[in-house]
Here is the input.
Amino acid sequence: MRKCSLLFVMIVMVFAGSSLLQSQEGRGVGRVAGVVQDQEGNPLGGVKILLESLKYNFNMETVSDENGKWGFYGFANGPYRITAEKDGFVRTIMPMELSQAGKNPRQRIEMEKVVELDTPVLKDDGSRNEFLQGNQLFKQENFKEALDMFVSFREKNPKLYKVGINIGNCYFKLRKYPEAIGEYVKVLEGLNAEPEKTKEINTTIAGVFAGLGEAYMAQEKFREAEEYFKKSMEIDPTDYALAYNVAEILFNMNKVDEAIKYYETAIKIKPEWPKSYLKIGYAYLNKGDTAKAISYMEKFVELAPDDPQADTIKSLIKDLK
Here is the structure.
């Protein structure tokens, strides 16, 4: 979002006879399997997976198991589209070319959580419904329509400045990063002007700092992104994803020693998350410390044996040894 070998989920179809199998366009002996995870690498069960042929009028459907595993069997060569859907997550679509000749590469589907936006307490039912509609549109990925709803809501409720987070999130999804940053900064100003810094306000401030970091990172403004991610971590040191993001930025800036510190922090916060082990392994490899690189890469393979990169990393470990 692993520990067992990947099994195919067989799609059982009832046919009148073998001649029907041969005559129906799109059918064949192709097979493909994979895993669906959230952005943190956790497996997602109960995800509806739809395989659609882009050449024939043909599709297949299954549901991922509790380990996030899924698979299809019985399709022909050609271009396909896989769609993954689950409540609470953004619908994910992956185009791919599949073959009947041999086993297709394992596929990893990563799904992004829908941002849960708080509903303000309002006496005005019209405003409340407008806010809720904006939330629903955001979940449906109708970011432009959601933006219009939230802007309209703010015009009617100017004192509820925190809706700027919602507006900023819409701009971020629309890739209008300067506008997103402007909204986050306005919210930050309002939060800092609050007479008392409660735990809830501090948590919100940490979230806004993280949002600013994401917006700057999306523009490849790594120094600014690093600054805001670190500020967020000062308030909430338990967020391993932030530590990982800071490490990635530092590594990209060739600050390998500093990057290692933050990868280590991410590992300390969430030791079962495999991605940090892989990246710190690369960092040590960059430093020329082969022994430590191998050690961390082996831990990655141990935690994520079904990851699409696992076989490549195993070969790299073998070569390094």
Residues 199-218 form the longest helix (20 residues). Confidence is low (pLDDT under 50) at residues 1-23.
